[in-house]
Amino acid sequence: MTATVDPPWALLAELTHGCPLRCAYCSNPVELISRSRELTAEQWTDVFRQAADLGVVQTHLSGGEPLLRRDLARIVAAADTAGLYTQLVTSGVGLHERRLAELLEAGLRCVQLSVQHTDPQAAELIAGARVFSAKERAARLVRAAGLPLGLNVVLHRADIDAVDDLITLALAWGADRIELAHTQYYGWAARNRTALLPTRDQVERARVTVRRRREQLTGSLELVWVAPDLLDATAKPCMGGWGAVSLTVAPDGTALPCPSAATLPALDAPNVRAHRLDWIWRESKAFNAYRGETWMPDPCRGCALRTTDFGGCRCQAYALTGDASRTDPACRHAPDHHLVRALVDEAPLRNSAYAYREGGT
Amino acid sequence: MTWRPVLARHVMLRRDPVRDTDLLLMPERVVVLRGHAGSVVRLCDGRREVPEIVAALAERFPGAPVADEVPRFLSALHEEGWLR
User: Fold this and answer.
1) From which residue to which does any coiled coil extend (chain A) (predicted)?
2) Which of A152, A179, A294, B8 could cross-link A224 (Cys pair, CB 3.0–4.6 Å)?
């Protein structure tokens, strides 16, 4: 099996779990990795080199908020020197003119900025922090620097009705791309699932809006709609397959086939402090656990969808059934799909408030 | 106006030694350049005009239908926004 493993294309480098925001939809783990356990810039430099040798060509510098790393420019430079195309994934908080110039100088290629809502007060409620004007400024600086700008909006009950306005905002801010991605109910977000799940009507209205706007847009803005797997009753092609396209390195060096896989208790995820990335990708038990099709249960095993959805999401199977190897319950053909139907039908009937993370950093 | 093709700022041409191919890297996307496509893009330095690029390639690949295919390929990349 080892010989046939294709190399990965992308590395999600989670530089820190620290974040000035406390988004209700945060899919990072409930227990965050403390700042003192973070990999150093030297260690990241080694990770980028190993990743490039392995076949990685792009890295997304993410978190938490990567701008909280004072040595971020050094980390960007290390990735660029390794030949990786670097994208900063940020809330925009802390992206001042001098900081951006420093990152540009280091080789930063593009920026993805999160946006919670077009209305500053609604955004504050979702993010648990007053950050809208910081984002507006960050977008302006990125555009002024001539860098490609992508907006990322996590969709849920409180912002999905603003999809039309969000697209207008993306145009006004000069974004090249807007990604409308439904909440992934892992980590902290799982706690807020009842408060976050949109209704079927909301999703349908948003879908119609996106279709209409897409027809009107003439190449200026790329509009990406990431399907709501739970409401569409369709398993998502999670990560393009387990250990197939990309890998994640968490702030403490834990290497994961997907950013949420830290929630899987039996995974025994390897760490870049102890193992070479090449071994981690090709040989480690964790990266081979759900690779390919041999692990698949019925009905995935004989299903035509298995080559497009790769059996869906292991973290979701675990979150909803306690067994990561079951068919993703989001899929309408899954034996556990009734669990998802119940969630989707019942959540909007309950009026619950968000739970926020304590403090921040 | 004479077009002197050059890669858009957000697009990076890179040799991929692991997969033994040329790639265009851009936000959220990797384009695999098959065959000699990388050699064509490598000539897009913002100084050469299209006929010069065609001539350079005709010399390097005698007998290949470069006069026909290269301008079409460059236009396609321009339409995608990858060449300016």
Assistant:
1) none
2) A179
